[in-house]
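Reply to dn_fold:

You asked what the input looked like. This is it:
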Amino acid sequence: MRLERRVTVRKKAHEEGLCLTLRGLTVCTGIPFARIREMVQEGLITPASEKPLLFRPEVSRRIMKIERLSSHLSLSLSVVGVVIDLVDRLEALEQELERLRRGGGTP
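and this is what came back:
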């Protein structure tokens, strides 16, 4: 018996690229609809479109990072938001430092 999982992908009319529907994102990540909606409400992920609710594919990596922090460290989504903001800022600073080390000059 062969099992298949299908992901619903839509192209937004005004942009290049593909977006995942809420269902598609749920299939890709294994995270329930309600949990993803909760992440949107907390501002942890941003949909590419509100109606219909569409997401850029890279959001799936962010969702998995949120879930790892939430489940492994037993953090609420609001606390995860603070941690992710700090990690994002740290990564941006590291990239800027690397650019400056390579002689990139001013930002």
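Confidence is low (pLDDT under 50) at residues 1-6.
Hope that clears it up.
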